[in-house]
Amino acid sequence: MKQVLAEIITIGDELLIGQVVDTNSAWLGQNLNPAGVEIKQITSVSDNREHILEAIEAARKRADIILLTGGLGPTRDDITKDTLADYFGVGLKVDETALAHVRQLFTRLNRPMLDINEQQALIPENCTPIYNDRGTAPGMWFEDKGQIIVSLPGVPYEMKNMVSTFVIPRLKEHFQMPVIRHRTLLTSGIGESYLSKKIETIELGLPAHIRLAYLPNFSTVRLRFTGRGSNSDQLDKELEDIVELVKKEIGIFLAADSDGSLQEIIGKRLIELNASVSTAESCTGGYIAHLITSISGSSRYFQGSIVSYANEVKESTLGVSAHHLEKFGAVSEEVVTEMAEGVRNKIGTTYSMATSGIAGPDGGTEEKPVGTVWIAVSGPNGTLAKCHHLHGGREQIIERSAFLALDMLRRYLPEAE
Amino acid sequence: MKQVLAEIITIGDELLIGQVVDTNSAWLGQNLNPAGVEIKQITSVSDNREHILEAIEAARKRADIILLTGGLGPTRDDITKDTLADYFGVGLKVDETALAHVRQLFTRLNRPMLDINEQQALIPENCTPIYNDRGTAPGMWFEDKGQIIVSLPGVPYEMKNMVSTFVIPRLKEHFQMPVIRHRTLLTSGIGESYLSKKIETIELGLPAHIRLAYLPNFSTVRLRFTGRGSNSDQLDKELEDIVELVKKEIGIFLAADSDGSLQEIIGKRLIELNASVSTAESCTGGYIAHLITSISGSSRYFQGSIVSYANEVKESTLGVSAHHLEKFGAVSEEVVTEMAEGVRNKIGTTYSMATSGIAGPDGGTEEKPVGTVWIAVSGPNGTLAKCHHLHGGREQIIERSAFLALDMLRRYLPEAE
Predict the structure, then answer these.
(1) Considering the entire predicted model, what is its pTM?
(2) Best label site of A5, B4, B238, B300, fewest CB within 10 Å?
(3) Secondary structure (H, E, C), chain A
(4) Residue A102 is part of a domain; what is its CATH number?
């Protein structure tokens, strides 16, 4: 089956000077892909007429669908609509539905309507308007020489609604889409190159219609298999067979047979185990607690944390022995063990994690250089502690330590019954 | 003076299917702009040889500098290096420095080195290697027909370091850049549109060679004034005059006359005041502590935090009254006040911040909907508490709450003597 290809053109000076990160394109990719549309290229250009036209022309040579976002606002720098009307050699007409919508909006907000707002109801004569429930600028759907050109607002909240309710359903009517299926495995505690070595034979044997991508992020690497075809059952079966082979190869490094994060996986396991967790954090400074609590529903298993940055807090709040602090230093097996056990007792949880290390850039010594991090996990089966030697800047060391602690807990947790 | 134009080409399937949001391009725009380089276009393409080459050829027709990111990893889907070698019609050679660096990295990690890791030290014969202090893949600097083509890793942490330490300095040597001067004001507690209304007259009166960018980030907005010209003294004087006018208009919303973050500003003030701080966090789940400890040297003023997610922890660790918890609920003025005072006493710091709110998506009620957040600040002059009603998803509510707490402390702190 022929692939249906789309290109995205995002328009706006703010994208090129880095004032705004383009999140629209990723959202469009995420939502068009499962519908069977493949994104060939994403192009960002400034609010410049010639450059917009050049980008459209180039995109039409490669793709069936061109999605433009941005440049539909009421101010002088928004030129997408006029540029498109000129491009198709047509004039603008008032769209009565769009005009009534804008009028109603201003009445509801009890604000006077300006000329520039009325002009938002003007659309090129040859387009189908895409009504905007969430703003004033309608989108535009053009059909030309078998290709579809769609112009959408840059405001994510407005754009997303128009794509979900109008653009995707209409594209599905217009094109015969191939079936696209994804399967993702989350691995943890193993680097990209070792992983690739482990599954080399499988990777080399993949059929042409199934592709593998490695997506690394701190101590996790996502393996994403993407299959294309016409029969979804057959694709699912093929992907399933491959994934089973891969899972056998990666063994303990498999964190989850899904697309979740390490903290989500742990959360699910803790709920299954009807267990709770707390953290005692020194060098990670609350970052593990933040990762855990960024998951909705984490209050079901997360009770709390003690960020014991100063040694006095380690003693007074966690009950770490002053003698150990003096004899071994804060970054030591003895202290991190007492931290993990201390917080578990203090807060009263089934499990706990603790970190103590030197995130840098200052504070390193010959014996304990920057990047030396002790991590401990405590639970009903006792306390484990491990020393890591991490590289990178302060931010990197904090983030890697947090993910290493989460991965240590993941391996420590028993399988749910 | 002739403009120096650059284009960015980001390479990777993950960008096109929307698995990863391209943040590299915005960072490059933010950092190349001040150096005198203007970004003409950003293009994202998949790990596909022909398409990468097509994008390079198109970009070279428009720009002086082509920056590629991505596709330099050790795995099979990383094809940028081979593609570039073929494009220039050259072979690959081993770069001994890069090889020694990779070897040293693996020795230090005490891991066996694989063939694919050795291959990372191979570079096209005609390029200057850009050494990677933070990873294994070197970057590549090509000069061809007066144009510069630079290939960088897609990992932001690695890429940023190479751009700051190698690429920008070298571009400045290579091209005659216009004089560019920046002045940045950090504002806090005021939205972009209100801010823009406040300084409308000044903005409209800016001369053509001075541009203003709004850089919003949660409860802070950076105002960056960029002046272009040939005389640096004159530019500095002009910028100074404008900044003084703006400072008068924004008053209390000025967080700092500099480019630091809110947590850096607070850190500096606490050091000047010889004071310390702690946090008691419920809905922010350790995120404020994380923001504070992400600043190097924060151990000089940050003692620790108690993340009291569960009510029992609020009682047992912070001494919040069970009666208040029952009568007013955890998200209340009474409880957040006791949390702030409790952590200040418990950990023994000059100041403290506390948060208690409903980050959602569940847990909201008619009376206290998702987004209801109480924030308190405590210090020698007493305790202040304020209720906010925030919008957005869980992550946004957590992040905005944290920055609102930091801003509340900023305003509470006395001016250093």
Answers:
(1) 0.76
(2) B300
(3) CCCEEEEEEEECHHHHCCCCCCCHHHHHHHHHCCCCEEEEEEEEECCCHHHHHHHHHHHHCCCCEEEEECCCCCCCCCCHHHHHHHHHCCCEEECHHHHHHHHHHHHHHCCCCCHHHHHHHEEECCCEEECCCCCCCCEEEEEECCEEEEEECCCHHHHHHHHHHHHHHHHHHHCCCCEEEEEEEEEECCCHHHHHHHCHHHHHCCCCCEEEEEEEECCEEEEEEEEEECCHHHHHHHHHHHHHHHHHHHHHHEEECCCCCHHHHHHHHHHHHCCCEEEEECCCCCHHHHHHHCCCCHHHCEEEEEEECCHHHHHHHHCCCHHHHHHHCCCCHHHHHHHHHHHHHHHCCCEEEEEEECCCCCCCCCCCCCCEEEEEEEECCEEEEEEEECCCCHHHHHHHHHHHHHHHHHHHCCCCC
(4) 3.40.980.10
Pair B344, B400 in one domain: yes
Indicate if the alpha-carbon torsion angle B153, B158, B160, B164 is positive or negative: negative
Q: Report how far apart, in Å, the C-alpha atoms of A144 and of each of A37, A88, A130 are.
A: 18, 9, 17
- What would the two tokens of residue B200 be? 């409308």
Q: Are A401 and A360 in contact (CB under 8 A)?
A: no
The shortest C-alpha distance from B41 to chain A (Å) reads: 5
Whether A127 and A158 map to the same domain: the answer is yes
Within 10 angstroms of residue A207's Cβ, the number of other Cβ atoms is 10
Q: Which of A89-98, B182-191, B293-302 has the lowest mean pLDDT?
A: B182-191
Backbone φ, ψ for residue A11 (5° rounding): -115, 130
For chain B, what is the domain count? 3
Q: Which residues in chain A are contacts of B134 at CB distance < 8 A?
A: 391-393, 396
> Residue A394: what are its φ and ψ, rounded to 5°?
-55, -50
Q: Which of residues 309-328 of A touch B (CB under 8 A)?
A: 309-310, 312-313, 316-317
Please answer yes or no on whether A396 and B13 come within 8 Å at the CB atom.
Answer: no
Q: Do the Cβ atoms of B286 and A307 come within 8 Å?
A: yes
Pairwise CA distance, residues B78 & B12, whole Å: 8
CA-nearest of B21, B70, B12, B66 to B39 is B66
- pLDDT tens profile A144-203: 999 999 999 988 888 999 999 999 999 999 998 888 888 989 898 888 888 999 999 999
Burial class (CB within 10 angstroms; exposed 0-12, middle 13-18, buried 19+) of A228: middle
pLDDT band at residue B320, thresholds of 50, 70 and 90?
very high
Taking CA atoms, what residue in A is nearest to B36? A17
CB-based contact A306 B290, cutoff 8 Å: no
Indicate yes or no: CB of A193 within 8 angstroms of CB of B114.
Answer: yes
* Cα B265-B271-B274 angle, rounded to 5 deg: 140
Question: What pLDDT score was predicted for residue A1?
Answer: 56
Backbone angles phi and psi of A396, in degrees to 5: -60, -45
* B12 shares its domain with B129: yes
Q: Would A272 be classed as within a structural domain?
A: yes
Range of the domain at A138: 4-174
Domain end: B218, B240, B256, which one? B256
DSSP three-state, residue B46: coil
Same-domain check for residues B311 and B394: yes
In a shared domain, residues A56 and A165? yes
Please tell me the distance in Å from A93's CA to the nearest CA on chain B. 31
Q: What is the ipTM of this complex?
A: 0.76
Q: Tell me how far apart the alpha carbons of residues B410 and B417 are, in angstroms, rounded to a whole number.
A: 15
